[in-house]
Design brief:
alpha+beta; two-stranded antiparallel ribbon; 9 strands; 5-stranded antiparallel β-sheet
Length: 228
């Protein structure tokens, strides 16, 4: 997780993808390359298995702990969550990416992205309830939370939506907040869904090519919403 990318684009899977290295305030971040590769590979793999993939963001909070020595609590959480999703939706293939973070509040927490078949899951409600159930029966965990705009459906071959979601998730790979950890703790984890070569489609259309362009689009939409 040591190599950092500070440019607004990264070449992965034969395409230039926008990444969150510059905020609206102009502050420049560095994003770690290794987890960026995992995010791209798992998004691409899930879309090779399903025509539409539902991507859901959840934040998992740990009670008053400052850097455990490993990520067993998150490994156990994901084990229980996968079982719960399979039981509720009949899904065995579940893509995910999580990153461990400790920032100014000094409390360890995890940002989680789930990827599931959108034909069976069309809102995050059921999965979030499952997350809450696991947290309630796990002493070390506090109540999970859903960030704003917590889910989106990505269609196979839709480069615009793919890139927008990749851009958003790339924010989780920023260098800030990932240096405080136990000696044996990795900073992230992910599923290992294999690519279905027979149904893999490489998106070709392009709407924007960098994070800066995406930020400009966001600002333009905000300005339009204020008109009138």
């Amino acid at each position: 997780m040591r190599e950092l990318v500070r440019s607004s684009r990264v070449l992965l899977g034969g395409r230039w993808l926008p990444i969150y290295t510059r905020g609206l305030s102009g502050k420049v971040y560095g994003c770690y390359l290794e987890p960026l590769k995992r995010i791209e590979s798992q998004m691409t793999a899930m879309l090779s298995h399903y025509t539409n993939v539902m991507m859901i963001r959840v934040d998992i909070h740990v009670k008053e702990l400052e850097g455990t020595f490993d990520n067993k609590i998150m490994t156990d959480f994901m084990h229980e969550l996968r079982k719960g999703i399979n039981r509720q939706y009949g899904l065995k293939r579940i893509g995910y990416f999580w990153v461990r973070e400790i920032e100014t509040v000094k409390h360890q927490h995890y940002h989680l992205v789930l990827m599931v078949d959108a034909a069976k899951v069309n809102t995050p409600k059921g999965i979030f309830i499952e997350c809450e159930k696991i947290a309630r029966r796990t002493y070390e965990l506090a109540k999970p939370s859903l960030p704003a705009n917590s889910y989106i459906k990505v269609e196979r071959g839709d480069s615009e939506t793919f890139d927008r979601m990749f851009y958003r998730v790339s924010y989780l790979t920023k260098e800030r907040g990932k240096q405080r950890k136990g000696k044996f703790a990795n900073n992230y984890g992910s599923s290992n869904i294999p690519l279905n070569e027979k149904k893999h489609v490489t998106p070709t259309s392009r709407t924007f090519t960098s994070g800066i362009e995406y930020l400009k689009q966001i600002q333009a939409k905000l300005a339009e919403s204020k008109v009138g």
